[in-house]
Structures are given as structure tokens and as C-alpha cells.
Amino acid sequence: MNQNKNVNRRIVLASRPDGKPVLNNFRLETGDIPQPDDGQLLLRTIYLSLDPYMRGRMNDAPSYSPPVELNAVMVGGTVSRVEASRHPDFSPGDWVLNQGGWQDYALANAGEVRKLQGDILQHPSWALGVLGMPGFTAYMGLMDIGQPRAGETLVVAAASGAVGAVVGQVAKLKGCRVVGVAGGEEKCRYVTQTLGFDVCIDHRAPDFAHRLAQACPGGIDIYFENVGGAVFDAVLPLLNTSARIPLCGLIANYNIKDLSAGLDRLPLLAGIILRKRIRMQGFIITQDYGHRHQEFIEAMEPWVAEGKVRMREDLVEELENAPRAFIGLLEGKNFGKLVIRVGGDTL
Predict the structure, then answer these.
(1) Lowest-pLDDT choice from 20-29, 85-94, 254-263
(2) Distance between terminal CA atoms of the chain?
(3) Which residues on adjacent β-strands are paired with residue 69?
(4) CA-CA distances (angstroms) from residue 9 to 24, 74, 104, 254?
(5) 78: left (phi over 0), alpha (psi -120 to 50) or beta
(6) Which of 40-44, 100-104, 248-252 has the lowest average pLDDT?
(7) Cα three-residue angle 66-51-166, rounded to 5 degrees
(8) Between helices 133-140 and 293-305, what is the axis angle to 10°?
(9) How far apart are CA 343 and CA 318, in angstroms?
(10) pLDDT above 80 for 345
């Protein structure tokens, strides 16, 4: 690790993207390590989560959360260790989950972090993945909106990723037939052979829509939407009456400059939703389900401990590599939950 304990490296938003993000949209800076006031903690980042939602925060546009200001640190969930504490409930060396962003050190009020204790300390980075926001998103979207029933067919795109992998595994536990969609033969093999999906289809195949139809001879009852684009186009005609579509993301659209170009397709979509009485519901996990986090933990922790739900991490070393890794994430280059290891895991 190149982390210098005497300075704070920060990656800030240098400019707003015009379409796809580029490396010049980010800037690495160094500065002094901040000092905590009463009630605060100085946190040293060990793991940084990179997630698709961050692309939206780079835009200066209305959304469910404010944009990152120019020259401000990029936002992001982190697993950190307490370097210095001015609160009685925390001591140096404690592991915490926080929103430290793309930097070595961050200050946080004690009430803004969650202390990590117990079995999670064997794999602290899992608090950013299967036992963190992506797993929480997958579980609540599937169970509350998807409402899976044994014998139904579920399709999920980005099936080897942080959300899609959990969606499919939980759906299998609930008795569904699960069809994954992923990019490339290696990811598809992992999805079927390791995660246990029934089928996985490469969305890069020229006859992808035909293969998806063959894999879903009885239609699709649940489509967990986190991609959009050509995958949704292929799913749409296969949806059964009363199908459910939890919608947590549209990564295929994040870099499109003018989304109004797709408005001519809305009447078609609305017509199918009406005729087939489809339930399509968007959700923001922190805003809609934050009060149900314990419900998720109580269900997911035993499954993970028993090996019934697995997760693959795509671990990238060094904070300086975060911009390039994030750009790759938006292009589907990651394989599993993308995490940056920022600092050493011991004090």
C-alpha cells in the first residue's frame, strides 16, 4: 500500500462529464489530515465501494440526492477503521461503515457511522457488498416489489454483479427458475456453475433476444431491472400478465446525453404495462427501505454464513486507480462487486 499516514489523498470531481466519464473528470489531491472535534471520529479508509449511482451524482441535475460539487471529494461508501476518537462509544481500531468518499481519511460524527462487529469482521469489505447496500437493494427490491413465488421465472441482468448475483441466489432460495444475463462466457459460467442460476445468457450474442426467449418458454414473471437498454427491449415482449419489475437502476442510460430521444417508445411501454397489468416500481434503497435494514440483515447473514448466498469481489488496489476502475464499471468491465482497497487492514 502506498498510503502515507502523514497526508490525506483525495480524489475530487474536477469537471462534469459530457456523456461518458473520462479520467480528466477526476483529480488527485493531497492535503492535511483533518482533526476531530468533540463527538467526532477520524476514520482511515480501508475499503471504498464503487457503484453505478455515482455517475448520476457527477451531473448537476435534479435527483434524489444532491450532486457532487466541483472540486469536492467524490462520494462513496467506505469501510474504515477509527484512527482517533472523541466519542466514548468508539475506540481506535474499531471498524465502521461510513460515507467517507474517495479519500484516505474522513471525519464523521459518531451518529453517522455504523460499528462493524461479530462475523462481518472476518470479511469487512462484505459490508459494502452482499451485506451492504447492493445486497440490501437486491433483497428488498426482490422480496417487497418482486414478491417471488415458487415455480415462477425471474430474469436479472448484470447477473454476476453486486446486485444481480444476490437477486438470483435469493430467488433460487424462494423456488424460482432463474435466468441471468451477463457479458461474456466467463461471467455466464460463473453465474450458473458457482451461483447456481438455471441459465445465463451472454447479452453480447448477436441472437441474444432469441436465446432469451428460448430460455423463458413460459414467459417472465419477475424482471429485476438494473440495466435497461437492449436487455429490457428483449425482456418486454416476454413479460407475463401480472409480472413485476423492481427498478433500481438503468446503467445503460447513465451516459446518454439526451434521454428525450426515447420518448417515442413510451406509448408502447405504457400499453404493454396496461394490457398485462404489469407492476413496475422504482425504488431508492436508503430512502424507501432504510427503516427495514435489520430485516435484511437477519435474513442475509445466515444465508451468507451457510454458503447459500455467495459473492465475488473485484478488488482493485490503490486509491489512485479508482477513476479508471469506475469508468470500467460503467462499461461492464468489472467481475463481481467492485471495491478499492485504499489502506492496509491493520493499524
Answers:
(1) 254-263
(2) 13
(3) none
(4) 17, 12, 6, 28
(5) beta
(6) 248-252
(7) 125
(8) 100
(9) 8
(10) no
Q: pLDDT value at position 254?
A: 53
For the chain, counts of helices (H) and of strands (E):
10, 15
pLDDT for 347 equals 41
Cell 490525506 found at: 8
CA dihedral of 241, 245, 251, 254, whole degrees rounded to 10: 90
Question: Under a CB-based contact definition with an 8 Å cutoff, are residues 23 and 323 in contact?
Answer: yes
97-115 mean pLDDT: 96
Least confident of 23-32, 41-50, 57-66, 338-347: 338-347
Cell of 276: 398485462
* Among 63, 90, 38, 28, CA closest to 321: 28
Non-local (6+) Cβ contacts of 106 within 8 A are: 34, 42, 43, 45, 78, 80, 98, 100
